[in-house]
Each structure stands twice: as C-alpha cells, then as structure tokens.
C-alpha cells in the first residue's frame, strides 16, 4: 500500500544519498546505524513511557532503511550481502520497537495490550518469514494487507499520538495491527499454497 509513496520518497532522499556516498559512507553502514539507532531509541524511550519523543527519534532512524536502498540503487544492482544484511536488520529493528512497547505496557499494568503488542511482534516476524521462505523455494509472495511499511507507520503513529495523551489511539492501533498482521499471514499462506498446489515440483524435505 505504502509502496506507492516510494518514488516520491526516493526523489527526496537521493541528494542526501549522493552526499553520503561522496564521503565514502556505504549503504551497509547506513543500514547498521539505522538499526542500532532504532533499537537504542526504542529500548531507551519506550520503557520510560516517553512514547512521543521515542517515536520521533525512531522515525528518523527508520528513514535510514529507505536511504540505504536509495544509495544501493545509485551504486548499481546492489550486493547479495547488502540485501541479506538489510532484511536481517529490518527484523532486529522491528523487534526493538515492539519489545520496547511490550516492556512499557507490562510496567504500566496494561497486560492485555502488552500481549497484543507481543502478538504484533511475532506475527510481523511470521509475515516476513513466509515471504522469505516462499521466495527461497522459487515462488512469489509479494501479497498481503499489512507489510513492513504499514506495520511501522501504524505502530509508530499509534505510539506517538498515544504518548501525547490521546486516549484509545495506542490500543486501537495495536489491535488494528494485530488483526491486519494475522490476515496478512493467512493471505500469504494461501498464496503460497495455490502456487505449490499447481506446481509439479518434487517433494521437499
């Protein structure tokens, strides 16, 4: 859904990407810094209940995920290691964000909502794994209602606005994200099942 905004974001980030590349900064360095900053900010601000400033800082670092892609495309087709590193660190960043929320919700006594946030974390990992495993088996799996950009936007916006004291925004956002992630898992499983059923490939162990 948010992929429609990628061309506009790319145009905005391209000058910054060129400037960093001229200074010898590689896309992999940007990826690593973005992930470290995301995790550090999430685990520093969120457990303290500082949801709004935490979400702002995290958003700045999350933009590095888009910037490293822009830089990689400017330098050529990109490397296998860079693609692998980017996907792996995406999972680390997501884990940091939702772990920070889970910790704060538990400390705040909101145990039910903490479980919802934990479900969002697990479901998001499953969504990504299903796609990676399907593509590793030679199938496509680029479908689903809630992919990583949507998870980040909903999660960060809900946490940020909730941190300003607006009631029900955080709980509503997390429940919406939980349902959307569950639907996405089912969508991807069905998509892969249809491809596997129509394929005459040999059995896999």
Automatic annotation (TrEMBL):
It is a multi-pass membrane protein. It catalyses: a CDP-1,2-diacyl-sn-glycerol + 1D-myo-inositol 3-phosphate = a 1,2-diacyl-sn-glycero-3-phospho-(1D-myo-inositol-3-phosphate) + CMP + H(+); 1,2-di-(9Z-octadecenoyl)-sn-glycero-3-cytidine-5'-diphosphate + 1D-myo-inositol 3-phosphate = 1,2-di-(9Z-octadecenoyl)-sn-glycero-3-phospho-(1D-myo-inositol-3-phosphate) + CMP + H(+). One of its GO terms (molecular function) is transferase activity. Its main location: membrane. Mg(2+) 2 binds at residues 65, 86, 90. The keyword Disulfide bond does not apply. Mg(2+) 1 binds at residues 65, 68, 86. A CDP-1,2-diacyl-sn-glycerol binds at residues 28-31, 69, 73, 79. Its EC number is 2.7.8.-. InterPro entries: CDP-OH_P_trans (IPR000462), CDP-OH_PTrfase_TM_dom (IPR043130), CDP_ALCOHOL_P_TRANSF_CS (IPR048254), PIP_synthase_PgsA1 (IPR044268). The chain crosses the membrane at residues 25-45, 113-132, 152-169. The active site is at 90 (proton acceptor). This is Phosphatidylinositol phosphate synthase.
């Amino acid at each position: 859904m948010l992929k429609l905004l990628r061309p506009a974001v790319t145009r905005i980030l391209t000058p910054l990407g060129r400037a960093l590349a001229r200074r010898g900064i590689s896309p992999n360095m940007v990826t690593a810094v973005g992930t470290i900053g995301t995790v550090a900010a999430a685990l520093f601000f969120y457990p303290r209940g500082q949801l709004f400033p935490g979400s702002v800082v995290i958003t700045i670092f999350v933009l590095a995920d888009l910037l490293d892609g822009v830089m990689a495309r400017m330098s050529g087709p990109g490397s296998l290691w860079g693609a692998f590193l980017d996907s792996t660190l995406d999972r680390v960043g997501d884990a940091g964000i939702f772990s920070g929320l889970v910790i704060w919700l538990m400390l705040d006594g909101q145990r039910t909502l903490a479980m919802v946030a934990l479900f969002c974390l697990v479901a998001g990992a499953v969504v990504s794994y299903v796609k990676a495993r399907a593509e590793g088996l030679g199938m496509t799996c680029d479908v689903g209602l809630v992919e990583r950009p949507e998870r980040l936007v909903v999660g960060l916006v809900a946490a940020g606005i909730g941190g300003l004291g607006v009631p029900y925004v955080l709980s509503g956002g997390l429940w919406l994200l939980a349902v959307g992630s569950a639907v996405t898992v089912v969508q991807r499983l069905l998509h892969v099942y249809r491809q596997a059923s129509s394929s005459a490939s040999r059995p896999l162990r």
